[in-house]
Design goal:
alpha/beta; Rossmann fold; Alpha-Beta Plaits; 2 domains; 8-stranded mixed sheet
């Protein structure tokens, strides 16, 4: 899987219920993330940092995410699901992926089921990691009423991601996540079940190596509730983090991921141990209306056009001192050490491939990228791809940072307004380039 691909959702059969799950990575260890209060395995990738968090874990493990029954893309069921049935669902997923033993990462409300699973099936749990969890938690009725009343408007961001609570786009994103994950009625049932859960009596039976992680100023689940896990599980290690967000994929994720890796594998590598970071301008292009053109031309003619497109495009990239990364099937990905050369290359590409009858759109963004052998990754790559997706046929669109870095280069830019770029926070000001 490359940086532009997302995992495919699959389903495991648990009795009569279908449980949605995704896998990422091919590591020797299975690491199953047991979700908290609500989840949606596909929409969660819209949150900034979420996919990169999973990719970081996938450096050393096959990472599995899933929606518990009744939520997200799993089958809807009446009422809140007891822990026993959720253990059945986890067993079903492990059977479906052919996993006989896995490390569990239970976060928030998912910590209780993870602990119970480890105590019940010790032979199936190699390591137990609990993040932001609670052994028992009192949930006042007026709190539940307030959550249900505001469900779907993003109000939960104040508890799960308070550092982003002042960002309107993030509030809207959380609101959509709430609506897609669960209904107000089902979330009431979840909170009522949370108030009834007490896994304290079974904690002494846990024999799996256990790591308990909690953020010091967590508003959703206060840290003293998490400490009880470490106090009651024999030999458990406890790590406290200084930040306050409840979601594990925001904040001090490098330290968190490193601690998980070291605990599960016995070794620790920094996130960037095998990466070289450089500043570059990233160019994506796309052949306009490629599906229709391919159907009309037929496979043989379409392949000739693509081969000629790639030949001409490579020449243009080399002429402008760029680095050809790869063909994307109906376009290209290239990087440049100078934004001016990148824009001029993009502007030259359209006329260069026009004799083939093809029309291009292009997008550029300048930022720090990660060099991964012959490939590249990082936020700047995603941003350039999203800029291209917004561009009009025959045009070259760039982000504001590109216009600022090419001042005095003789290039012209026309405003195209502020746009929301999928998976990236905030509104991005985009511009159409011309010579």
């Amino acid at each position: 899987m490359n940086d532009l691909e997302l995992p495919v959702t699959r389903y495991a059969q648990s009795g009569e219920v279908n449980i949605a799950y995704q896998t990422m990575g091919e590591g020797p260890i299975d690491l199953i993330l047991v979700p908290g209060m609500v989840s949606h395995v596909e929409f969660a990738h819209e949150f900034p940092g979420y996919t990169n968090w999973l990719r970081r874990l996938a450096k050393f493990a096959r990472v599995v995410t899933f929606d518990k029954r009744g939520q997200g893309l799993s089958d809807r069921v009446p009422g809140a699901t007891p822990l026993e049935e959720r253990m059945d669902d986890l067993n079903a997923i492990m059977r479906d992926i052919g996993s006989s033993r896995a490390a569990l990462f239970g976060y928030s409300e998912g910590s209780a089921m993870s602990a119970l699973f480890a105590a019940t099936y010790p032979e199936r749990v190699s390591h137990l990691v609990l993040f932001g969890g609670f052994v028992r938690m009192n949930v006042p009725g007026n709190f539940i009423d307030n959550v249900v009343h505001h469900w779907g408007n993003g109000d939960m961001i104040r508890l799960v991601n308070p550092s982003a609570a002042g960002i309107p786009d993030m509030v809207r994103l959380v609101g959509k996540f709430e609506r897609l994950s669960a209904s107000p009625g089902s979330i009431r049932g979840v909170f009522q079940l949370i108030g009834d859960i007490d896994v304290g009596p079974i904690l002494p039976a846990i024999r799996s190596p256990t790591l308990v992680m909690h953020r010091k100023t967590d508003v959703m689940v206060p840290i003293h509730l998490g400490r009880k896990y470490a106090e009651q599980i024999s030999g458990a290690k406890f790590i406290e983090y200084p930040s306050g967000d409840h979601a594990p994929w925001v904040g001090d994720v490098d330290a968190l991921a490193g601690d998980i890796e070291e605990f599960v594998t016995g070794r620790r590598e920094t996130e960037d141990a095998d990466l070289e970071r450089v500043l570059a301008t990233v160019l994506f292009t796309d052949i306009v209306d490629s599906t229709r053109k391919a159907a009309e031309a037929g496979d043989r003619q379409w392949r000739r056009w693509l081969d000629e497109h790639d030949r001409v495009a490579r020449q243009m990239v080399e002429k402008h001192r760029g680095r050809w990364i790869k063909s994307t099937g109906d376009g290209l990905l290239a990087t440049f050490d100078g934004p001016g050369r990148a824009v001029r290359c993009a502007l030259a590409l359209g006329p260069a491939v026009r004799p083939t009858g093809l029309s291009l759109r292009a997008g550029l963004h300048t930022g720090e990228i990660e060099m991964r052998g012959d490939d590249v990754g990082g936020l700047a790559v995603h941003a350039a791809s999203r800029v291209m997706a917004q561009s009009e046929p025959g045009e070259v669109w760039v982000s504001r940072v590109v216009t600022e870095l090419t001042a005095g280069a003789g290039l012209k830019f026309s405003e195209r307004g502020a746009r929301d770029l999928k998976g990236l926070p905030g509104a991005w000001e985009l511009f159409a380039a011309s010579a």
